[in-house]
Amino acid sequence: MRFEELKGYIEQKVIDIDFIEKEKMNIKIDYLIGFLKFGEKYYIKDIRNEKKEYFQISLKKNNDRVFIDELIDRKKTYLAKLTDMETIEVIVYNEEEMSINNFSIFRNEYLKIKKNKNSKKYKELKKYIERDIEKNYVFKSQGMSYIFFGKLKDSEKEEYSLLGINSILTLERKEMSFIKDNKTKFIEAFSVVKEERINNNSEKYNYTLIKIKENIKFTEDILEYMEDMEIKARINQLKNDSSSYLKIWEKYADIEKKILRENLNTYCKINDVKIVKYEDDGFFFEIQLDKKHSFEKGDTLIIIKKDPKILIENDSEEMEKDFFDNLDYTEVFIEKTLKNNSILVGCKQEKDLEEEKDSYIFYSMKGGKTVNDRREKARKLITDNKTPMRELNLIIEGKKVTKEKAGNYEALSIQTKESLFPKYEPTENQKEAIQIALNTPDIAIIQGPPGTGKTTVITAILQRLSEERKEVGNISGNNLLTSFQHDAVNNALSRIKILGLPAEKYGIKAGMQEELVNKNFKNYMNKVINIYYEENPELKRESEEKELREIYNDYTNRIRESLDEIEIKNLIRKLKFFSRKYQLTKEILEELERIEDDYRGVSRTCFVDKSYFYKIPISENMFVDNGRYFVEKSIEKIEEAIKDKEIQASNFVEELKILKNSLVENKINFSLLKGCKISILSKLTPVEYPFMDKAFNQKIAEIFEKISSIINNIVRENKNFKERIKLKYLDELENNPLRVRDTIREYITTFGATCQQTQGKEILNAKRRTLENKINNGKFYDETRTYENVLIDEAARSNPPDLLIPMSMAKRRIILVGDHKQLPHLIDENILEYLKDEEKKNGGKDVKSYIEEQIKESMFEYLKKSCEKLEKYDGIKRVIMLNRQYRMHPKMGAFVSNHFYEGKLENGLEEDKFDNRLKDLERKAFAWFDISNKYQEKKKNNNSFYRNIEAKEIAKFIYKHIDSEEAKGKNFGIITFYSSQKDEILKELANEENKAYKGQELIVIKENNYAINDKYKLSNEEGINEKIRIGSVDAFQGMEFNFVCLSMVRSNNEKNIRKKFGFLTNRNRLCVAMSRQKELLVVFGDSKMLEGEKHTDIEVLQEYLKMCKEDGEYGKFESIL
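RE: above sequence
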């Protein structure tokens, strides 16, 4: 480009330079360059080079430094080119030059010109047009794009041009007309006349520098161009509409951020910190605060040295960013609130908090800020129409758009039918749902009531999309499957196989550690291994022998050592796990259980005062603050304990040495002292000596005689060469899961993550891996954040701000699967009230009601209505409800259909397909076990209700049936509406008194907390993954169990219906709670609560009770207390 062609600049300057490393420099003469400064060093870069290559220069004149600093610091508009290897020419433009949003060119006209000079096919050429124009005619400066637009001098003829680096594009302005909605419309646009090299002809134009706010726009035809202009106008109109859907949620987000910032006002200063107890899983610290606080158990807080007062006094995003960027903080969680303004906390990092005296503690904004930033970014992309899917903003707002079907894909291929519907044909309704999802031009809405085969439909959709994509290539990471919570994502992914391979989930729950190989991969590999063993049963025995031999050898190598309780427990656990894994004879497992029952230990605690050890100094400040005294007292206490034979001297030699050296050394090694402190506390925690006499040691010998007998009973066979090769393959599958995982990843079509974590680093890194060496660098960033297809499961449970995140990432299709009749999305009622009050001031009562309706209605239901309007406009089917359930007994299916789905849900199975054989409940599908109202509910401090007698009866019911022959291969769910009742049920399931027979294993074990016994949590029975689940309604959506117990809890004399029944009046929650069972639903509760006249809020429960009493064939009512 010749700079003399560029008119209108306000300053021109020539800069003398030297290159620091000339031999590595590859910028060509006369190419446009940009400046960059790191510290005191200056760099230049070819602005067209997509690689981030910068080359260091030195400036010969000081005033040139000032000039370049001003260009960079003030973000001036400039163009610069390398004139020769020692000179840069710079021209600076006025900031107030003309600017436009888009510059539009008809693509077809440009193609006609390029086609004559280029042999590439038309379709191939289209890919390179935008890049071609970008390189030749668009200039970058300080992050903005510019064009040089010329108009013919001294002529009335309308001829225009774009000045490029090496050529000129001659343009013609055209007025075009077209018919739309029976009206003639006109638009003006540019079409290409010719393209030629720069010559003296360029001087016949006057050039103006124009700033392009968005992009140079290419369009195929006049209709597309018109639609673009119309879309922009409508979107700009929506931006100013305060009642638009996205505007309402923007206001919601603003209040949420405001509340988050207000949490800073609760900060406290730390007066003192001390360790109060030590456990195997870390320290707990008692922190004394300088004032009263509102912190509660479970809160996450951060501790910092910086005073947050500055952040409160300066309410700005810039100050907030500056404050939190590179902030050194420690994250803690509250284990317990104490008296005297103190809290007991655990530390999420390996840090000793005793050094945090005089620091500040407050609610962690970090997580909340990340969440809000992701929401805001997605909402802004949609609002500004910058998402990959055109017109997403208008679709969300329920506005008309012009669309054509994405394709004409068949619902099922032969492969999909064989893999997903091997026994039964899918219903016409299911096929239609798959077809709608495949052919939607934008959004598909699939409502999936309970048991309608939603997961199978989702799998079929993803598999069909992957099959169609195979024709194009690069199917890896092409689909995104997401949901509102980790459990919901795990539940969806665990049942999905696309083209025979699992989907992979990214991101983890807060506080949990990421697994190297996630659960889906483990299940997949285990299934492959099991199939291989089924096909080659002789190899299974070889693997069994090898594994058992390793356990035995480990024992024989250590037989002379004194094994402690944990080691013995681990040995028995290994053998039990081994027996279940390889399904050895029942006698072997029973033998091991008898050995475990015989095993018992004797506890012994070291009675040593540990208070001084907690105060051993680990920093200079602590040592100065009476630290020497605590070291001396610690030495004294250890020596006293050795003398009294409370501890063995040999166990504390190193610790005593470190403590004594710290008293005489000039420079103390506090890191060494910290390790010493931890070591002493560890050794003085309670320990158990399980085998303290000859009788116990004899028992150990007997245990291993039996183990030896088990090993000797294994049949040994000689293996030929082929079988050894097969064993090696199996060994790879079983022992190198990372290698197997990495191989499979190359072919996985579907990635999974929660709505929030679709923007997390784990999934972004995975996307990068799939794209490496497959796309050019210019598109790499955008491609890592987009997917061809986005499928959102349990969409009705996701609140709109989170739902917008994955929606903003879709290129071609958004498929929402959910059910607004089940659990709703969660909202903050305080924010809603704040919003309503604000709108009431401005718009009155109607606006207030409208806001509440918009916030409380799920986005799934809202979009369902919007898409139904679009269907009427363009005739493209977007919405469907799966209408046949295959889960429940027909009687319960009809009940759920009539009470929750207006009778539109059909039954897919007849009564004879259900065979409940539980003792005393044979062939029953629904039951009520009545518990007298003389045992009324109670309420805990957290305002959560519980009823112990109900929990006890449920525990007895479960123990009666869970191990029965009738329940083999079947599972149990226990649902309650209250967290305190869940705790009561866990407690009663851990109670020996509730067992059905002596020797029955406890279902729940009490250690630090209540936990389900592994035998029942991870079932090895065919057909089920878990034998029992206990939880609130929220933990059960999307799940199904053979037998479900529902704990009603409420039993009181309250007159007000809402107060009397609480959560039981919520139809959405009842819908979920009463539709999880396949064979039997049993409600435990006080039937007297439902007596009297019918009431809308409790009508469902009243009808269920009536059905249990009156239907003698499939129902049962029994008073048990």
